[in-house]
Amino acid sequence: MSDVNHYSKIASELGVKNDQVVSTAGLLDEGATIPFISRYRKEVTGSLDEVQVAAIRDRLQQLRDLEKRKEAIIKSIEEQGKLTEDLEARVLAAETMSLLEDIYLPYKPKRRTKGTIAREKGLEPLANQIFAQERLQPETIAKDFVDEEKGVQTVEEALQGARDIMAEWVNEDAEIRKNLRKLFIEEGKFTSRVIPGKEQEAMKYKDYFDWEEPIKSAPSHRVLAMRRGEKELFLMLDTGPPEAAALEVIEKRVIKANNLCAEQVSLAIKDGYKRLLKPSMETEVRLYSKKKADEAAIKVFTENLRQLLLASPLGEKSVMAIDPGFRTGCKLVCLGPQGQLLQNETIYPNEPQKKTMESGALVKYLVERHQIEAIAIGNGTASRETELFFKNIGLPPEVLIVMVNESGASIYSASDVAREEFPDYDLTVRGAVSIGRRLMDPLAELVKIDAKSIGVGQYQHDVDQTALKNSLDDTVMSCVNGVGVEVNTASRQLLTYVSGLGPSLAQNIVAFRNEHGPFKSREDIRKVPRLGDKAYEQAAGFLRIRNGANPLDSSAVHPERYDLIEKMAKDMGVSVEQLIKDDQLVQKIPLSKYVDEQVGLPTLQDILEELGKPGRDPREQFEIFQFQEGINEMKDLKVGMELPGIVTNITQFGAFVDIGVHQDGLVHLSQLADRFVKDPKEVVTVTQKVQVTVMEVDLLRKRIGLSMKSDPFAKATQENKSENPGKKRKTKKKEENESMAEKLNLLKQKFGK
């Protein structure tokens, strides 16, 4: 199958036109990035968005990998001298890797098995006779195969060897494997049990001590939890359908008679299923369910990460940042509008030193000296006490005091990136700098940290790490290019994610900027060593130059369209700068006049939108948030309290909310809204400010139950009861049994025993 066939298949699967897939694949093969294609090549792709372009990329790679495997299999079978036209056609027609491997299994080089040993003893003809299931006496025909020299001592040994061979035939039957695979997925169950004697150690897996759930409907978080419990040797996990159902699938295809030979075949089927097919199918289905669970968990992670990266920035302001603490004090740094470190100090406003006066005097002096406009306080240990200190020392009312989520700041402070930026400062200073910069621009700072350390995932260490990294990289790249990057202030890490650049060119840009000073125009970027025309084409539209020589350099308009805009301005009788400053004039541009073979209405509409807001940050405006005063620790919480909070993480089973007590509370799926909620993303986003009610406080296990319902203590409706499906089925079964028992009692009373 050529790429031409791949294109039509992908177009059909994604519901797009064949030409769109062909054009997009061509751009991807030329090295174009997803952000560039979706933003600047709309006429070529038919305005496909980032999600669609990524889907084409991923599916095309899958199909090409399948094609390579087919070629390797055909070559292998051909070298064995066993390739026929029919077999080659079956290989080429296989649409999935599983089906392809099923076809190849009988020809796959294998280690020495029971079947191969039986063949070596000359028992294959006996297996053929029995497998035909004619009216023969197996023991009688087996006598002819008893041969001490070949190691066959008795009739039973001969029959056993024949059954071993037949078991392998059953195992290698592609149709049987296909039907069994379907049965395992459609009717199979996860059955989890605690390992005897591990009950106390495994308490965190208590829900799975005696658990059963259909494979096809098990949610990602439970699949990953059970697998982790098994890996940690706390749980025993079985995967599969009832054995009788599996044997029936095989017997329907293999058993052709009802005689003594068929009985031998039946014995071979049972052995082949238990010894070969079940372990193989279980492995496959485990991989299938794991992949499905990984995809769901990775999707949750990437969506959370996107929301966190695109959180509202405070912007370029002078900031004082605090990494709070008790015994070791609070690390304090003053940052300039571009995030540069101006000064660092340590203050001791909290217990045990409690140097409130000295600390307050120093803070007020630094606020005045560096013209501080906002104070960022990390939300870790001593954060609420430190926040209270800052509110009570008499700072100017215009100075904002903001609590900042510091997840991952410690990872950054110990990283090579932090050491490179601040080689002469210790971890605590670097951590405080990171907290301050997060307030100013979350995206620019968070790209320096391994995304897995930011704390917005679900079982991130259990999922496929390569798939996770690729998905997170796509998300970061999408966010960075969606916002745009100021080339004269961006860090190497931020520039790395710009379309067409990568680590090497990002480093070259920073080095060139340090040596030659700020870039005055986008055209100057071409002077960077090793940054060729292709990289410039991919990157230029996403790089911004504020107050540059060309006013368009601060916008998302690509330089390849500058001539077009100059023509528009000329036609309107104004300069480009005048055009940009006059929104009413921009709206009067007759777009249809400028449509040609290269530029269509989609690109022209993007240009018009950008001219109306050149260089404007697409993220939402920053809004200040305050936790409830006086609620600083879990022991301060009381059931029924209504508190403000910030969503910090979203999972498939609910949302975690920071309410300012150093322990996030969980709003379960069933408590997110007054209506039935299937997916938390319908209701909340990461960094969203919400109002919650405290439902439960467990100090021992450090668990807080929260609700976002308007009347959370009202009796839950049946629709909003979010029992686990496995448990729900058990309850239903119990009800059925009780109902049946009642009916039997009535019958006994009426008719006697």
From TrEMBL:
InterPro entries: HHH_9 (IPR041692), NA-bd_OB-fold (IPR012340), Ribos_protein_bS1-like (IPR050437), RNaseH-like_sf (IPR012337), RuvA_2-like (IPR010994), S1_domain (IPR003029), S1_Tex (IPR044146), Tex-like_central_region (IPR055179). Residues 640-709 form the S1 motif domain. It comes from the Bacteria. Residues 711-753 are annotated as: Disordered. Gene3D superfamilies: Nucleic acid-binding proteins (2.40.50.140), RuvA domain 2-like (1.10.10.650), Tex N-terminal region-like (1.10.3500.10), Tex RuvX-like domain-like (1.10.150.310), YqgF/RNase H-like domain (3.30.420.140). It holds the Pfam family Tex_YqgF. This is RNA-binding transcriptional accessory protein. It comes from Cyclobacterium plantarum.
